[in-house]
Design brief:
By secondary structure, the chain is α/β, with parallel strands linked by helices. It contains eight helices and seven strands. α1 runs parallel beside α2 and α4 runs parallel beside α5.
Length: about 270
């Protein structure tokens, strides 16, 4: 067994929204470090494709400590905005893998941008907060409850957005949901620290994904946004693999209540 603090052999991680983009990048990193990984998503075909990709990685990657068996990969359909579905999903996951050591609440939806704030409907407001904020709450509540009951601590992480830190017009529901996540994680760090449970927020910048592809490929983004990214490229899901491993590992045992900005220095320029 390796004595590396980044060795995740035997640990179990849940990644919501783990069938593409940032979530899939996290899941890949966790697997390569030796963790058993469960991903949640609402699209069955994307879940299946992601599971196939992850199982190939689990079967071929050289794992920390030379683990004798490949880490397990589970892919399940779960709508995190549905409180009952989240509770069922956790019960099933615990029944299959026995425990959860790290929970990454990453599932989210974007706003259907309106022409102005005053034209946004209540239904659109609630749709986005229902997944992004309520879904994060349902997910982390179930994870925290389990971690407190079994003892031994754990790691909670949630994906926010630069819209939590910078002004984002015509998507106030999205920005409000992500700002709420940052505040929630800070509160959880203070409340749950006595149980050895760490809580951190992750703030991505402009990341290439199915959700953002059309915008990032367009002329306005290429000419006005990309030149403002000091690293001169869009982020990728794989850019979050190392952070996920760090947050799930013993290397971050004293790191809680933080906001990790992964944006290629966009917000500084």
């Amino acid at each position: 067994m390796s004595d590396s603090p980044f060795n995740l052999t035997g640990k179990v991680a849940l990644v919501t929204g783990g069938n593409s983009g940032i979530g899939l990048g996290m899941a890949e990193g966790l697997l390569r470090a030796g963790a058993h990984v469960c991903i949640w998503g609402t699209n069955e075909s994307k879940n299946a494709a992601a599971a196939e990709r992850l199982r190939a990685i689990a079967g071929s990657a050289e794992r920390a400590g030379g683990a004798p068996a490949a880490p397990r990969v589970l892919a399940r359909r779960c709508d995190v905005s549905d409180e009952a579905a989240v509770e069922r999903g956790f019960a099933e996951l615990l029944g299959e893998l026995g425990r959860i050591d790290a929970c990454f609440a990453n599932a989210g939806v974007t706003s259907a941008r309106t022409r102005s704030f005053v034209e946004m409907t209540a239904a659109e407001w609630r749709r986005v907060l229902g997944v992004n904020l309520d879904g994060t709450f349902f997910t982390l509540r179930a994870a925290a409850r389990h971690m407190q009951q079994r003892g031994g601590g754990g790691s909670l992480a949630a994906t926010a957005s630069l819209s939590a830190l910078l002004g984002m017009p015509r998507a106030h529901n999205y920005a409000a949901s992500k700002g709420g996540i940052v505040s929630m994680m800070r509160g959880l760090a203070v409340e749950l620290g006595r149980h050895g449970i760490r809580a951190n927020a992750i703030v991505p910048g402009w990341i290439e994904s199915e959700m953002t592809h059309d915008f990032l490929a367009g002329k306005p983004a290429q000419e006005r946004v990309l030149p403002r990214v000091p690293l001169r490229r869009w982020g990728e899901g794989s850019d979050f693999a190392g952070l996920a491993v760090y947050l799930a590992s013993d290397a971050s045992a004293y790191h809680t209540g933080d906001v990790f900005v992964i944006d290629g220095a966009y917000s500084l320029f």
